[in-house]
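Q: Sequence in, structure out?
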Amino acid sequence: MDIWSDIACPWCFIGKRRFEKGVEEFEFSDNVDVYWHAYQLDPSLPEHYDGDEVQYLSQVKGMDPEQVKGMLEHVTEQAAGEGLNYRFDQLRPANSFTALRVLEQAKTESKGNEMKETLLSAHFERGLDTGDRQVLAKLAAEVGLDETATAQTLSSQKYAEEVNADIEQARQLGISGVPFFVIDGKYGISGAQPAEAFTNALTQVHAETVS
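A: Exactly. Output:
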């Protein structure tokens, strides 16, 4: 299973939970291997943005601030339904590229799933600055990576090529929004679909594979 996702995407965390529930209901769940691919919803976002999420979305999307607040309330409710505690009042908008490089490093040490979860939670639930290199190094240590080594990685451009390659692959596949799930290299599921959608798709692909 290949999943394109951004750690600064609220629906990506919701989609992750729904996907996980879908896998749990799949008869052959032990056979599902997940590979996280990088994607950026807004590459133009500065490493550190001075405003809050409402100001950022109002500025970028040209939406009325009250409309943005209503949208964020809806997303918060959807997240709560999956056991997630979104805190948009504390969220600190930041360019996700550096965090995605940490994810690439974690993948080389078989910690991709743990790092993905930690980065999403840090951004949406814990109010941490996921554009800050010191914060990211400490988050890496939480999942068992070496904090000093991670800090050294982030002081360079290591893993930038891998992140860009994922983003380019998404472009070539026609992926224009995330989360986006690809099963067995050929079946795509777009968006944070209900858990049963993933269970059904996995069951169908398995049946086709063994028949």
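DSSP finds nine helices and four strands in the chain.
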